[in-house]
Design a protein that fits this description.
alpha/beta; Rossmann fold; 2 domains; 5-stranded parallel sheet; 4-stranded parallel sheet; 12 helices; 9 strands; 36% helix
Length: 316
């Protein structure tokens, strides 16, 4: 059984293989017919216990472009809302013959627990678990950075990437730190102390509380959504103060390198962590990230379910 549960499960060669495969598959998006017969006859389940738009639709589009059958399972309005356990749901999916289960769950570790269980024989892909990880988001972010700024060796060596904002509640931040550093980039986490997780000092990244001092040195600025729905306490005095110190606006955009790009995993809180002017500027690759997500997720599904024996070894 092969899964994609965490960036830490990949080495550099494996990560680059996914990005290279995504680059090849991206060409399908430019073709008149945007489909391959690769996964015809395979069943892929989107098992989402949390609301999602971009990730779920992206996985669905990726699977359909590879000709797979897709089942979308939402916790709301299903037997889960009536108290059904993850075990019972998994056994139901197994009975349906699911070849891959793409799971988003509020509990950190749920995808690995599912993968290690005896209830699913197919592949398990982590589409975000709690505040733990979101590996395919990190892969599409790296794909986007490499497309605009990558070196001739195919990695991100020599680049300086800034991840700004709500690091504490962000599974995107954790996966990105692991992957970007693995690919040779220097990563800086920029946030107020209250929005940094315990133990962040052990992450392969530098930490700064001063956005303006780091900004001119960054090749890519990744703004994170302030996840107010996960905040039970007061992490900053006011939205206005947060935006003043850690928001990306026109004045800060003027401090960036001419070649630097603006990123955001979405959805955005326009006016809080990023202004509309920055989000919609020529520097922004935010919409492109969404498009690249389909190619990257196609690559993951392809390598898990349809690649050669050698290629399938990319994801263990």
């Amino acid at each position: 059984m092969r899964h994609l549960l965490s960036i830490s499960d990949l080495d550099k060669t494996q990560a680059l293989s996914i990005l290279d495969t995504a680059l090849e598959l991206a060409r399908i998006s430019d073709a008149p017919v945007k489909k391959l017969p690769t996964l015809r006859g395979r069943t892929i389940v989107n098992l989402f216990y949390e609301d999602s738009t971009r990730t779920r639709i992206s996985f669905e589009a990726a699977a359909k472009r590879l000709s797979a059958d897709v089942i979308n399972f939402s916790a709301k309005g299903s037997s889960v809302s009536k108290g059904e356990s993850l075990k019972d749901t998994a056994q139901t999916l197994q009975a349906m013959g699911a070849d891959a289960v793409i799971i988003r769950h509020s509990a950190s570790g749920a995808p690995r627990w599912l993968a290690d269980s005896e209830w699913i024989s197919g592949s398990v892909i982590n589409a975000g678990d709690g505040t733990h990880e979101h590996p395919t988001q990190a892969l599409l972010d790296a794909f986007t950075i490499r497309k605009h700024l990558g070196s001739s060796t195919g990695d991100l060596q020599g680049l300086h990437i800034g991840i700004v904002g709500d690091i504490l509640h962000s599974r995107v931040a954790r996966s990105n730190v692991l992957l970007l550093s693995l690919l040779g980039a220097q990563v800086s986490l920029i946030a107020p102390p209250t929005l940094l997780p315990v133990g962040v000092e052990s992450w392969p990244a530098k930490i700064s509380y001063d956005f303006d001092s780091v900004l001119p040195h960054l090749d890519a600025v990744m703004m994170l959504r302030v996840q107010q729905e996960r905040m039970q306490d007061l992490f900053f005095p006011t939205a206005r103060e947060y935006s003043h110190f850690f928001g990306l606006n026109r004045d800060r955009m003027a401090l960036m390198k001419k070649s630097a790009i603006i990123m955001h995993p979405g959805p955005m809180n326009r006016g809080l962590e990023i202004t509309a002017e920055c989000a919609d500027s020529a520097r922004s690759v935010i919409v492109e990230q969404v498009a690249n997500g389909v190619s990257v997720r196609m690559a993951v599904l392809y390598l898990l379910l349809a690649g050669s024996t050698q290629e399938q070894g990319v994801l263990q």
